[in-house]
Design brief:
- It is built from 10 helices and no strands.
- By secondary structure, it is mainly α.
- Helix 1 packs across helix 8, helix 3 packs across helix 7 and helix 3 runs antiparallel to helix 9.
- The protein starts with a helix and ends with a helix.
- 40% of the residues are buried.
Length: 252
C-alpha cells in the first residue's frame, strides 16, 4: 500500500465517520444542557464511568482490527497494540483535547472555592466532601490511566482479552464514539463555570467533534491498519455488510 493510497484511505475514513461523530457531539451537548447544574463531584463520577467504558471499547475495536488482519500474532503484541491504541488515544480524546478547548473558550478557570482553598488551605473556608477530588479539580486536567489507574488500565486489558478471543468491530466502534463524546462532555462539565449560552454551546460542539472525530478514527482504524500494512479497512458504518456479501458471492 503506497503512501498516497494510505493518505486516501485516511481521508475516506475521516469523511465517512464525520456525520455519526457530529450526531454524537449533539448528544453530548444535550447531556450538558440536561445536567447543567450538576456538581463537580457528580461530573467527576460521570467522567469515570464513561472514560473507562470508552477505553474498554476502544481497546476492543483496535485489538479486534489488528487481530483480524494479523491472525498469526500472539497475545502479547495484540495487547500492546490494543493498550497503546486505546489508552493513548482515549486520553487525548476524553481529556487533553477537551481541556485545550476549555482553555481556548475560557471556561477552564479556577472556581472561587478553589482559589480560596489554595490560599487558605487550613482555614476551612471552603468545605468540600472529598479533599482528594478537590485537589484533582484544582489541576483540572484528568489523566485517567494515572488518576484512576486501577479502573482505566484494567478496562483496556479486558477489552484486549475480549478482542483476542472474540474479535468484533462494528457495534463497539459505534458505541465507543458516543461514549467518548459523553466522557469529553463530562470533562468539560467538571471545569465549566460559565452559563451555556449559544456561543459557548457552538464552541463546545466544535470541541467535542474534533476531540472525538480525529482520535477515534485513528485509534479504531488508522492505527491498526497502518501497523498491519494491508489494504486497510473500509468504513465501519456501511462497508462491512457489503464486504461480507462479496465474500459470500465468491464462495458460491
Amino acid at each position: 500500500m503506497s503512501a498516497a493510497d494510505k493518505a486516501k484511505h485516511v481521508l475516506n475514513e475521516l469523511k465517512c465517520h464525520a456525520p455519526f461523530t457530529l450526531l454524537g457531539a449533539v448528544t453530548g451537548i444535550a447531556m450538558m444542557l440536561a445536567f447543567s447544574d450538576m456538581s463537580y463531584e457528580s461530573s467527576y463520577r460521570l467522567f469515570y464511568i464513561f472514560h473507562p467504558a470508552h477505553v474498554f471499547l476502544s481497546a476492543m475495536v483496535t485489538a479486534s482490527l489488528f487481530r483480524l488482519h494479523e491472525k498469526t500474532k500472539g497475545f502479547l503484541i495484540v495487547l500492546v497494540v490494543g493498550y497503546v491504541g486505546s489508552i493513548g488515544v482515549a486520553t487525548l480524546s476524553d481529556s487533553v483535547l477537551p481541556y485545550l478547548g476549555e482553555e481556548i473558550m475560557g471556561v477552564a478557570v479556577p472556581r472561587e472555592c478553589s482559589v480560596h482553598t489554595q490560599m487558605h488551605s487550613e482555614s476551612g473556608f471552603c468545605e468540600h466532601p472529598d479533599h482528594e477530588h478537590h485537589t484533582h479539580h484544582t489541576r483540572r486536567l484528568h489523566l485517567g490511566f494515572i488518576e484512576e489507574w486501577y479502573i482505566v488500565n484494567p478496562a483496556a486489558i479486558l477489552g484486549v482479552i475480549f478482542a483476542y478471543f472474540l474479535p468484533r468491530t462494528r457495534l463497539p466502534h459505534a458505541l465507543h464514539i458516543l461514549i467518548s463524546t459523553w466522557a469529553s462532555s463530562a470533562h468539560i462539565m467538571m471545569n465549566n463555570t460559565q452559563p451555556l449560552g449559544f456561543v459557548l454551546v457552538v464552541g463546545i460542539l466544535i470541541v467535542l467533534f474534533v476531540a472525538v472525530w480525529l482520535p477515534c478514527c485513528f485509534s479504531d482504524i488508522i492505527f491498526p491498519t497502518l501497523l498491519v500494512g494491508s489494504d486497510g479497512c473500509k468504513c465501519h458504518f456501511h462497508a462491512h455488510k457489503k464486504n461480507h456479501s462479496d465474500e459470500n458471492q465468491a464462495k458460491e
